[in-house]
Structures are given as structure tokens and as C-alpha cells.
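ok so for the tutorial part 2 we go from a plain amino acid sequence to predicted C-alpha cells. step 1 is just haveing the sequence, like this:
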Amino acid sequence: MSPIFTAKTLDIISHSQAQTRRIGARVGARAQAGDVYCLEGDLGSGKTSFVQGIAEGLGVMGPVTSPTFVLVNVYRGAPGRPPLYHLDLYRIAGPQEALGFGVEDYIYGDGVVAIEWAERIREILPPEHLWISFRHLDATKRGLVMEPKGARYEALVADLQRDIYGGKD
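step 2 — the prediction. this is what the C-alpha cells look like for a chain of 169 residues:
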């Protein structure tokens, strides 16, 4: 599904995998328990790199890898920071299958949730979340479009926009 651009949407061009991670780290530094980040995009579009950045921003130590075959990886953040629940739903057929493995325990839990292939469970997502669409622009460049759903995520995106681009209060 193509993103819907509004005044609250943030469109970012990342010029490298490292830059995509840094953008994720900015999100992770602002992350709060209960946050749900929904990631959509083709294979290799930067979703896992972004989640690695979220982990960095939460103070997770150690490698962060995509849980394609185990569905969920749980990472402990720095003391006082929430855990990161990294879900990869590439192998999930739809919402019923996700409910069968207990996805609601994560998306309504006490951690920060990053869901790769979130479009596969769109119907069961909480109404408030941050939807991030990733797209290939060329061999190294990626486009990220952040669509906030709810006041928490609108404030987060506005804060990121000020941090990344300056001004525009």
C-alpha cells in the first residue's frame, strides 16, 4: 500500500545502510514502552537496518538480527529502558496465524515493538502506531515515509522532523 502524504507525514531519503540505522537510533532514543512501529517494504529495503538502529537507541547490547525463522526476537534495553520486541512476519499468512503464536502479547505488552511485514496483520494492529514504508531508490538510497496514527506518534514524528531538518515547529 502506498503511503498517504499529509502535513503530519515525514518523508526521508537515506543515502546508506548506516544512515538508515542512525534514523532508527533517533526513533529508539525517543521510544517508550508500548510503542508500536509497523515496517513495510520489499526485501532489502532497510527494515532490519532500521530496527538495528532502534535497538541502538534503546541501549541494546549485542547483535540484532531479523527473526525470520523464529518470528520474534526479544532484546533487553539499557537499565530503565523497555525491551525491544522485533517481529518478522514474512512467513505469516495473516492475522489468524499471528494470533496463534501470541502476537497480541507483544503488541499490547510492555516493550517497544518493531514489526517487519506489518501489512500482514494490519487488521489486528492497535489503532495508534507509527507506520513506516521503505522503498528502494537505487543501490544504496532508500526512501522512508513515516505515517503517524495517534497523538503520541504525531508528536514523535514532529520531533524527529525538527531533529533531522531543523526548525518548523
